[in-house]
Specification:
Length: 108
């Protein structure tokens, strides 16, 4: 998941160059603060991408939809499965038709 690691590292680098307090912000901070907005967006994109791929290895390792739902703290097992399947179905990802992957997606 290098994309997320890289996005976080970039955020930390940019954040170190930004003022920390409201009363410290001035016109000279425009570039750094704009870069910070871009860094946050990059983290969001990396998280969105990770949400497509992270659950499948967890399922392969023996986790259940109930385990994944409990890890999110937001959904029931059925809601977690349905949300993930909707994301997977929206992808141009032919591998999802592989027998092992299809079994993992439909089972647990």
């Amino acid at each position: 998941m290098g994309g997320l690691d890289e996005a976080i590292a970039n955020f930390q680098h940019v954040r170190a160059k930004c003022p920390r307090r409201w009363d410290q912000i001035g016109p000279d901070d425009r570039r750094a603060l704009t870069a910070l907005v871009a860094a946050v967006e990059a983290i969001q994109e990396a998280v969105d991408t990770a949400q497509h791929y992270v659950p499948l290895p967890a399922l392969k390792s023996g986790a259940t939809w109930s385990d994944l739902a409990a890890a999110t703290g937001e959904w029931t097992a059925e809601e977690c499965r349905d949300a993930y399947l909707a994301r997977v179905e929206s992808l141009d990802w032919p591998e999802r038709e592989h027998e092992e992957i299809r079994t993992l997606l439909e089972g647990s």
